[in-house]
Design brief:
The protein is mainly alpha-helical. The chain contains 4 helices and no strands.
């Protein structure tokens, strides 16, 4: 969708990669990414790209939640 590997997009969205202008423009112009961020992709979607994006978003949310819990435990 963006021309970049999925792992780069995941890292960018999770804050583990510094964004650049081209990547931000590509992400913002991709309807599927916007839908994933907003949680609008149907769990039963059949399109493999949509499934991959939905899965990546779910994974990022879980990683962020685990990081938050780790920070709370460290306090």
């Amino acid at each position: 969708m963006t021309g970049e590997p999925l792992s780069i997009c995941q890292k960018l969205l999770s804050g583990h990669r510094v964004e650049n202008r081209d990547m931000l423009v590509a992400l913002c112009q991709t309807r599927l990414v916007i839908d994933a961020v907003l949680g609008l992709i149907d769990p039963d979607v059949k399109d493999p790209t949509a499934r991959a994006v939905r899965k990546a978003m779910r994974k990022l949310k879980l990683e962020l939640e685990l990081a938050r819990l780790d920070r709370e435990d460290a306090e």
